[in-house]
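Raw record, unedited: TLDc domain-containing protein
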Amino acid sequence: MIQSNTSNTREDLEKDNAKLQKENWEFRNQLKVGCSNTDHNSLYFQLERSKNESLRFQQEINNLNQNLNLILKKIETLTKENESLKQQLDSLESKVNEQTLEINDKVSKSEIETCKQEILLLKYKSKYKSDIIDKLSFKIINEWIDDVKTMDFELIYHASNNFEKSSFHSACDGKGATITLIETLDGCVFGGYNSQSWNSDGNWHGDDKCFIFTLVNKHGIKPTKYSPRKELKKKKYVASNICSGPLFGRGYDIGIGTINGSHQSFPFTFVDTTGKGKSTLTPTKFFTIKTIEIYKCI
């Protein structure tokens, strides 16, 4: 709009200038023909005025041209700045979009993982109704055994306030891998995982997959898995005989239903990683079972 108005003004000035030059030419012709002194003086003054007007108009035209050039240069500069800003905005928008996608991806992965955990907990809630542990503890034990596979746990033995060796062997011998859960009268909860079958021959066996654990203890130690000592040459990790229930560790880290009752000598075969020694599982060597449960791992 500025350029259009400037152009119109310049054209008007140029027309006026041309008109004055024409009049000037006509006055000159009249002078050549001849006239009176009065007429001559009048025409002379008119000619001078026309000449001055013409110079003024020309100067205004020059000024307008200069202003127009300045405006055009300013427009060109602003156009370049605008293009630069547009490129910066496009680059910034691209980065924002990339970061948004990354955030959405992370949020989505987090939401998916949360849903998986909730589904897993619901699965445990619907299947396992232990008198000793909650559903989250089943999930923790599952991860200790296999952090990839979701396992099923089938209750095959349960006893409260007493322990019958014969009923244990009848229910558990030859059933494959199991977890043993023990709750004592003083509120401690612990147990062990046997990766192989129980039997009644009294021979020690097992492999490096066997472990014992604490879930509730007097030290406030969080649920912890204790693995066998690596330096042991013979795999004497689990055993049982007709005179006892499940035994974990050659030194009876956990011994259930022995001729001396139920007791623990942890740490002996299994490594103490929490530093509380013999009082880790229970405050005393001997303990009284409140409830014992044995689950087959499927």
